[in-house]
Amino acid sequence: MKIKKSSTYKKNTINFFNKMANKNHGDSFKHYDNVIKWIKNKNGTELLDIGTGKGDLLEKILLIYPNKNWNLVGIDISEKMIEKAVEKNISAKFKVGDSENLPFKNSSFDIITCINSFHHYENPEKAISEIKRVLRPGGIIILGEIWIPGFFRNIINFFLPFMKTGDYKIYSSDEIRYIFTQQNIIQIDKKNIFPSNCTYLLKKAETK
Ligand SMILES: C[S@@+](CC[C@H](N)C(=O)[O-])C[C@H]1O[C@@H](n2cnc3c(N)ncnc32)[C@H](O)[C@@H]1O
């Protein structure tokens, strides 16, 4: 289904998450165990968490793997979320910024995580090209997303442009695989989290 573009998604997202920064939100934590499993063998790694929110995932990574010499960076478009992340005072850098215009040099990271954030991006192709740009060849992406069966997904997607939450589109698993493959990023694993989430493991080709 073609989504009608609106210039207000980003503004709605920022307003919504600035307000949500003081509340508990969502079920992102359901993806964290898959992230923890998929990064188990990494060491001395530069990891960027896009749409990091309050930095909960980075905090968990440091808790589970305290001695892996991480270089962790979290970025989020909501300045209030980043304020909360900084308050955690963990061993990670946090920055306000947009997934569609990442303020990092080419090939800066070995791993990119993006949990329950991608469905807010009004230009997903641009976000993927930015992910690809800042990721090193052979680097991995762990994407955690909402998953809803087709009939209900179509209804929800129809209403998203009228909502104030800044959600742009809920994707099917096939759509996720397709839009990443279009930019030469290949899905190598996927874990369904019953009943409404899916974590994807994707990889940038070794050669550019
Ligand atoms: C549901 S929260 C998930 C937060 C976090 N990943 C977690 O695991 O709890 C989605 C986050 O994505 C951020 N976000 C949405 N659009 C963004 C964009 N274009 N660039 C960067 N962050 C964005 C929101 O501000 C919000 O903090």
From TrEMBL:
> What is the name of the protein in this document?
Methyltransferase domain-containing protein
Q: Record's Gene3D superfamilies?
A: Vaccinia Virus protein VP39
Q: One Pfam annotation, family name?
A: Methyltransf_11
Q: Which organism is it from?
A: Candidatus Cetobacterium colombiensis
Q: Name one GO molecular function term.
A: methyltransferase activity
**Keyword Transferase recorded:** yes
State whether keyword Lipid metabolism applies.
Answer: no
Please give the biological process terms from Gene Ontology that the record holds: methylation
Instruction: Name the UniProt key words of this record, in alphabetical order.
Output: Methyltransferase, Transferase
In terms of InterPro entries, this protein maps to: Methyltransf_11, SAM-dependent_MTases_sf
The Methyltransferase type domain, residue ranges? 48-143
